[in-house]
Design a protein that fits this description.
Layout lengths: L1 E4 L2 H19 L7 E5 L6 H12 L8 E5 L1 E3 L10 H8 L11 E2 L8 H14 L5 E4 L21 E4 L2 H7 L13 E4 L2 H5 L3 E6 L5 H9 L17 E6 L8 H16 L9
Parallel strand pairs: 1-10, 2-3, 2-6, 3-5, 6-9, 9-10
Antiparallel strand pairs: 4-8, 7-8
Helix pairs in contact: 1-2
Bound molecules: 2-amino-2-deoxy-6-O-phosphono-alpha-D-glucopyranose (GLP).
2-amino-2-deoxy-6-O-phosphono-alpha-D-glucopyranose binds next to loops.
Length: 272
């Protein structure tokens, strides 16, 4: 499914409502938490803002939610302002009632990085897998840090960043390319694909080619998000700008799914 909204704000609100709805209907409790995969980047910032707002309005509790973040830079201490640890606490965790012991992030400072990746995968398995993986994409179609050419069966591992990604992320490092780490720890494509549901946010014209490659063309390791074509429950939520490279026919089709579902009174439970 692809949900199209005119503005990033409405797309983000849709996702926040969707996530809240999923957590509530799961009815998590101690011993049976809702396991949520989370991304960083500018795209999910508004989603987090909505989630925080909903938490403050008493609509959602994160007490029985366990989170696993997608990735982290190698060599940045958690306290570094550009680390994904800092990002997550700044935008979400500090503002909701999540228990710090339920927050999982890869440690890019681990002495043995491979062991750290294995530990992460094992911990996800211990929780019985991820219920819903929320993600964004890079302009080159990467999911987490699974750069073009990544195995579609990859698992959590050390990854060298593509030059495009280093350039795209220099804005978080004072626009200084030399400050961007060139390696990261990332969940694999298969780690994301193992989640029972995957929800992706794509915002902006600079992501339009990636969206087109990922949904209108074949499954291809050069556009790793295209692996979602093989997932049973994928949902991609985009703004109009991100649809610029899609065929009119594709856009109309996905819009019609939502219209038909509404007219049948199915709300979010739309036909696949
Ligand atoms: N590893 C992250 C990805 O998980 C994220 O999807 C991407 C897009 O970020 P933005 O939303 O800022 O474009 O940035 C990084 O590369």
């Amino acid at each position: 499914r692809v949900i199209i909204r005119q503005e990033p704000e409405a797309a983000s609100k849709y996702i926040a409502e969707y996530v809240v709805d999923r957590i509530k209907s799961f009815a998590p409790r101690p011993g049976q938490p809702f396991v949520l995969g989370l991304p960083t980047g500018s795209s999910p910032v508004l989603v987090y803002r909505h989630l925080v707002r909903k938490h403050k309005a008493g609509e959602i509790s994160f007490k029985n939610v366990v989170t696993f973040n997608m990735d982290e830079y190698v060599g940045l201490p958690p306290s570094h302002p550009s680390s994904y640890h800092s990002f997550m606490w700044e935008h979400l965790f500090s503002h909701v009632d999540i228990s710090p012991s339920n927050v999982n992030l890869l440690n890019g400072m681990a002495e043995d990085l491979e062991e750290e990746c294995e530990r992460y995968e094992a911990k996800i398995r211990e929780y019985g897998g991820i219920e819903l993986f929320l993600g964004g994409i890079g302009p080159d179609g990467h999911i987490a840090f699974n750069e073009p050419g990544s195995s579609l069966q990859s698992r959590t591992r050390v990854k060298t960043l593509a030059y495009d990604t280093v350039l795209a992320n220099k804005r978080f490092f004072g626009d200084d390319v030399s400050q961007v780490p060139n390696m990261a720890l990332t969940v694999g494509v298969q780690t994301v694909m193992d989640a029972r549901e995957v929800v992706i946010i794509i915002i902006g014209a600079h992501k339009a080619l990636a969206l087109q490659k990922c949904i209108e063309e074949g499954t291809n390791h050069m556009w790793t998000l295209s692996s979602l074509q093989l997932h049973p429950h994928p949902l991609i939520v985009v703004d109009e700008d991100a649809t610029l490279e899609l065929k009119v026919k594709t856009v109309k089709y996905f819009k019609s799914i939502e219209t038909v579902a509404k007219s049948c009174g199915m709300g979010q439970k739309m036909p696949k």
